[in-house]
TrEMBL record:
Keywords: Membrane, Transmembrane, Transmembrane helix. It comes from Lacrimispora xylanisolvens. This is Uncharacterized protein DUF3781. The keyword Membrane applies. The lineage of its organism: Bacteria, Bacillati, Bacillota, Clostridia, Lachnospirales. InterPro entries: DUF3781. The chain crosses the membrane at residues 54-75.
Amino acid sequence: METDLIKNLDKIHTTELGTLRIKKNLSLDTPDLISWCKNKVQNAESIDRKGKNWYVVVDGCILTINAYSFTIITAHKKK
């Protein structure tokens, strides 16, 4: 599954508040959240672009990534 998101994997980043929000929402305790997220994107079950965001479904969670800046906005456990 080759998407613009996969092609620009090296540009994926997040903010300090984004890091806190993602770790809290997914109950993560990983020292390198960006590497964790990049790995999840590479192993995604599905990657869909809806408007300005990419939605990555993997391992029971959904990552929301801005399609223009490649900023990880948030992540939630899949319901």
